[in-house]
Every structure is written in C-alpha cells, then in structure tokens.
C-alpha cells in the first residue's frame, strides 16, 4: 500500500479528445489532483501512435496542472485469459502497446480487466492471464508503470471478482513484474463484498488483507452501484445515489489504510457531477 501523502489524490476519468494532454486540463477544471485516461480508443484493436508533439504537450500539461499518479485504463477489447488463440494473441499485442504508451507518458498505473474464461474454466483463464503477464516482464522493467488488476463485478464468465483470483495471479507474478490491485467499489459490492457501512468496509479490507495483502492495494475506482448487493452486475451510480450509499466513501476518505490512495471517479453525470463529488470527497477527508 502506498505511503501517506500530503496530496489528497482524487480525480476522474477525463476525456483525451484533441490529445491526451487535454485530459489533464479537464482534471484541473474539476479540481482534481489526479486523473484516469485512455491512451487509445478503448473499443478498437488499432492502437494510437503518440507523436513527439503530443508527448511534449502532455509533459507541459503535467507541469502546469500539477496532477500526479495518472492512471491509464486499457482497452475493453483486451482479454489476457481468452481461450481463443486469435483473440489471445491480439490481446497480448494490444496490451504490449498499452504499456509502451504508458512508458512514453511516464504514467504511474495501467489498470486492466483480468480477463474472461468464455467457454473454458476460471482456473485455466487465470493461468493464461499469468502467462500473458509474464510475457511482458522485460518490457515492464523499462518504465515505472505498475500494472493494476481491476476488481470485477463477476458478470458473465469474467474472472477477478473474488479476492482469491487476484491473489493467485499476484502470487505467480509479483517477483517478476510490478503488479497490484485497483478496487472498483461498484464492482466489489456487486461481487458480494459489502461496503454499505463503516463496519462492512473494515471487514472487507480485513478480508482483502488476509487473502491478498493490503500492500498490493494501490488505487480505487470510486463509484456507487445502481444494482443491489451481490448482483454480479456492473452499473455505476453517482456517489450516495446507489445501493452502496455515502458511508462507504466517507470511510475510504478517512481510514488510514485508504485515505492516501488515489481515487478515480467513473460515476455517470460527467464533469459537473465530478466537480461536486471531488469537493464532497475532500470534505470527508477533512472531518
């Protein structure tokens, strides 16, 4: 787990339309100190090429805005555990390109969905994910980007909705690549880990520590849930307007184990809503 910082790291997934640097200025506009971005179109296999001018504009924006601990979210198409050979190879190539873009932008974290078993078993899927990650060992060592497995809601055949899944992958690769976990609060709740009260949050963190280890927790996607507890359905809601409720987010902004970790909003509503939610999270942290 990250050490406590004087900077309260709160932000949102902001748009890179017109250039990746614009996401940083959008973050500054809503009062963010960090941001999550896509470095390429998340629904296309063809990866974006970052030119010298765009990289320089990014570096200038970092300096001007002061945003830190930027996270990239990988393409939704990537399935590092696919049993389909063509899809697996496409996914592995695209994942390499994701890491390369992160290195060019000196991005702190690359968040990725672990994968989906499709018509195969969860255990076989997890083994393919491990193999996919081991393949990028040399590339991962060339930059500072840490790869973060995102906790999933458990829809369909996806893996990563149980702490045991994350622990399995991390134990296999932690000595070879920089790895960690990003908790999406909506996904976690939908997967059956309660977050509705301070007591429930504490119990869930203790279970995370027992199974995975809190030293592997690096970030949060901070979202409420439209769907009920253990629904295994991924539908984000604005903070306090879903089934989780506000106590969870107050807890995360105040508990010593989670307060300093970066938190990225993916709630519906866009910039104006995020501006208010960032203010809200800051108020929670100051109490």
Which key features would you list for this structure?
alpha/beta; 10 helices; hydrolase; 287 residues; 12 strands; single chain; Xyl_isomerase-like_TIM-brl
Describe the protein:
This protein is of the alpha/beta class and 287 residues long. The protein has helices at residues 21-29, 52-65, 85-105, 122-134, 137-140, 163-173, 185-191, 198-211, 246-254, 271-286, and strands at 10-13, 34-37, 71-73, 109-112, 115-116, 146-150, 158-159, 179-184, 217-222, 224-225, 236-237, 263-265. The chain has an eight-stranded parallel barrel with strand order 1-2-3-4-6-8-9-12, surrounded by five helices. A two-stranded antiparallel sheet has the order 5-7. A two-stranded antiparallel sheet has the order 10-11. Helix 9 packs across helix 10 (271-286). The two termini are 23 Å apart. Residues 1-5 have low confidence and may be disordered.
Tell me what portion of residues adopts beta-strand conformation: 5-15%
Q: How much helicity do the residues have?
A: 40-55%
Q: State the strand order across the main sheet.
A: 1-2-3-4-6-8-9-12
Low-pLDDT residue spans: 1-5
Main beta sheet: 8 strands, parallel, barrel
- Computed CA radius of gyration, to the nearest angstrom: 18 Å
* Count of helix runs: 10
**Count of beta strands:** 12
Structural class: alpha/beta
Question: What oligomeric state do the depicted chains represent?
Answer: single chain
Shape: globular
Query: How would you state the average pLDDT, rounded?
Result: 96
SSE order: EHEHEHEEHHEEHEHHEEEHEH
Distance between the termini: 23 Å
EC number: 3.1.21.2
Family: Belongs to the AP endonuclease 2 family.
Function: Endonuclease IV plays a role in DNA repair. It cleaves phosphodiester bonds at apurinic or apyrimidinic (AP) sites, generating a 3'-hydroxyl group and a 5'-terminal sugar phosphate.
Protein name: Probable endonuclease 4
């Amino acid at each position: 787990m990250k050490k406590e910082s004087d900077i309260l790291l709160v932000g949102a997934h902001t748009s890179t339309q017109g250039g990746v640097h614009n996401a940083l200025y959008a973050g500054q506009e809503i009062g963010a100190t960090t941001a999550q971005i896509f470095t390429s179109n998340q629904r296309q296999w063809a990866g974006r090429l970052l030119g010298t001018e765009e990289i320089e504009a990014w570096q200038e924006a970092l300096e001007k805005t002061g945003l830190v601990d930027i996270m990239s979210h990988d393409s939704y198409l990537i399935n590092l555990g696919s049993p389909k050979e063509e899809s697996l190879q496409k996914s592995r190539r695209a994942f390499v390109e994701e890491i390369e873009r992160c290195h060019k932008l000196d991005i702190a974290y690359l968040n990725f969905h672990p994968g989906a078993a499709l018509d195969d078993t969860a255990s076989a899927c997890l083994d393919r994910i491990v193999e996919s990650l081991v393949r990028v060992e040399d590339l991962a060592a060339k930059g500072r980007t840490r790869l973060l497995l995102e906790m999933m809601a458990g829809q369909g055949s996806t893996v990563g909705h149980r702490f045991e899944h994350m622990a399995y992958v991390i134990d296999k690769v932690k000595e070879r690549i920089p790895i960690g976990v990003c908790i999406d609060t909506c996904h976690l709740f939908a997967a059956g880990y309660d977050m509705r009260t301070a007591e429930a949050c504490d119990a869930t963190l203790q279970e995370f520590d027992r199974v995975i280890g809190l030293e592997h927790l690096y970030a949060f996607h901070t979202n409420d849930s439209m769907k009920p507890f253990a629904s295994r359905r991924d539908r984000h809601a604005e903070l306090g307007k879903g089934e989780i409720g506000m106590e969870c987010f107050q807890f995360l902004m105040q508990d010593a184990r989670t307060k300093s970790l970066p938190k990225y909003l993916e709630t519906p509503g866009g910039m104006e809503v995020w501006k208010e939610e960032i203010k809200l999270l800051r108020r929670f942290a100051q109490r």
